[in-house]
Amino acid sequence: AMKEKNPWHKSGIVIVAVIAVVAVVALVVVFVVQNMPLPQKYKYGIVLDAGSSHTTVFIYEWPAEKDNNTGRAEQKHSCNVKPGISSYAGTPWKAGQSLRECMREAEKNIPKQRHAQTPLYLGATAGMRLLASDEVFRAVSETLQTFPFSYQGARILSGQEEGAFGWVTVNYLDDRLKQGALDLGGASTQISFVSKMFDGSESPGNSVTFRLYGNDYNLYTHSFLCYGKDQALKMALSGPPAIRDPCFHPEYVETKEYSKLYDSPCVSDRKPQGAPAFFQHTGIGNFQQCQDVVRSLFNFSQCKYSQCSLNGVYQPPLQGVFGAFSAYYYIMDFFNLTDTSIPLDTVKERIARFCATPWQQVKQQNPGIKLKYLVGYCFAGTYLLTLLTDGYNFTSETYSNIKFIHKQIKGSDAGWTLGYMLNLTNMIPAEAPNEPPLPYAGYVVIVTVIIILLVVLFLF
Ligand SMILES: O=c1[nH]cnc2c1ncn2[C@@H]1O[C@H](COP(=O)(O)OP(=O)(O)O)[C@@H](O)[C@H]1O
Ligand SMILES: [Ca+2]
């Protein structure tokens, strides 16, 4: 008789073989996944600075695998569009369209696999504070949402935020000394610094507290709306009929539209009754007189605090060094005066000489400079000096405490955007390091169990 086969024996072998194969595959998979070479990983953040005269898209980059306590976010790329979104009040959809090209550049500059987790913020400053158009915001938001990033919303920064985040930026990566921040925009200007004499009690509205690298800072900050250089110029022009304007060069003559001059809330209530449609704008180029015009924009008559800068705004005594950026830098760079070891009197003389130079000659001497900026440097230089000295109380002695800066250490632009992103992404506390898929203990346990299983099966 034939020996009967034991069916249990055959299927037992099959089961053992299957388990063995599964175990080997599992072992290989766990091993490979755990030890996969990790690519150098970066994380990214995008901040749009929607200023009054331009929008700049900033891309920041930082290593993902280590903690961020040491502060290593850097500007990877920036892209600028003009004019600012606040110029599209009549055609909001164009405000959205205007950002497309720079956003496409952002797509190219950030690796695809990171797009979805890259936060995208838009912060608008004084131009939108003055315009406050929901339509423009809606259009801009709609456009930004069509990009593959993690859109976190568009909002108007308060003046305090704009000042405080500018201060965070200039002090980020640079903990040698706590420097103040001076930001001159087109529609507003900010001053922020820490002062021993300031604890916030005298004027709580000017106080911001920050924790940076484990220290608490009580910051004095103020933003002057309408005192950016473009709105200040409008105010200067809308004073007593500026028939012969000391803030413009001799020989400068231009016919201008009254309605364009009075199109902003900073000057709309100054519009004279029955003003003509056009006026002749004629320069005489006189620094002293221009300075008087600028001083007339500052109100020094009332101060209900121990001391004020201008317009009855509290300001504690200046302390320490200041980084001055944005238009502060552009203006002084044009005059070759970014070196503040040059005495203040010499600075004044040079700007006075420039103002007195006839317009035709100024144009000849500066062929590479855009006319729209060139024509404004006499006023801008005078305004900058008057704001710093009569406004903020810098003196010939303290003038050299100002550093006109454009770039931070490591090439990030000085401005509020970096500080804004660091704050919103909680980058001061550490981010978890880029760990392997399994915790180490789990890895050891799984590998051990599979090896024991294999040995047992083998013996069996
Ligand atoms: O090359 C330049 N020369 C002179 N001024 C410049 C140059 N580039 C930009 N600016 C000025 O810098 C200022 C930037 O202000 P921004 O547009 O950020 O306004 P905001 O901060 O008040 O919202 C504007 O007044 C603009 O005209
Ligand atoms: Ca600005």
Characterize this entry briefly.
With 460 residues, the protein is α/β, with parallel strands linked by helices. Helices cover 38% and strands 19% of the residues. α6 packs across α15.
What does this structure look like?
ATP binds at residues 186-190. Belongs to the GDA1/CD39 NTPase family. GO terms for molecular function: apyrase activity; ATP binding; GDP phosphatase activity; ribonucleoside triphosphate phosphatase activity; UDP phosphatase activity. Keywords: ATP-binding, Calcium, Disulfide bond, Glycoprotein, Hydrolase, Magnesium, Membrane, Nucleotide-binding, Transmembrane, Transmembrane helix. The structure is a single chain. With 460 residues, the protein is α/β, with parallel strands linked by helices. The protein folds into 2 domains: 42-159 and 410-460, Nucleotidyltransferase, domain 5 (2-Layer Sandwich), CATH 3.30.420; 225-404, Exopolyphosphatase. Domain 2 (Nucleotidyltransferase, domain 5), CATH 3.30.420.150. Helices cover 38% and strands 19% of the residues. It is built from 16 helices and 14 strands. It has helices at residues 7-34, 92-97, 100-109, 126-131, 134-145, 159-171, 229-237, 258-261, 287-295, 327-334, 344-356, 359-365, 371-374, 377-391, 416-424, 440-459; strands at residues 42-50, 55-63, 74-81, 119-124, 150-156, 180-184, 188-193, 207-212, 215-225, 244-245, 253-257, 278-283, 322-326, 402-404. Strands 8-9-7-6-13-14 form a 6-stranded mixed β-sheet. A 5-stranded mixed β-sheet has the order 3-2-1-4-5, sandwiched between helices. A 3-stranded mixed β-sheet has the order 10-12-11. It is elongated and about 120 Å long. Bound molecules: inosine-5'-diphosphate and calcium ion (CA). Inosine-5'-diphosphate is lined by residues 51-54, 84, 125-127, 185-188, 228-230, 326-327, 330, 373.
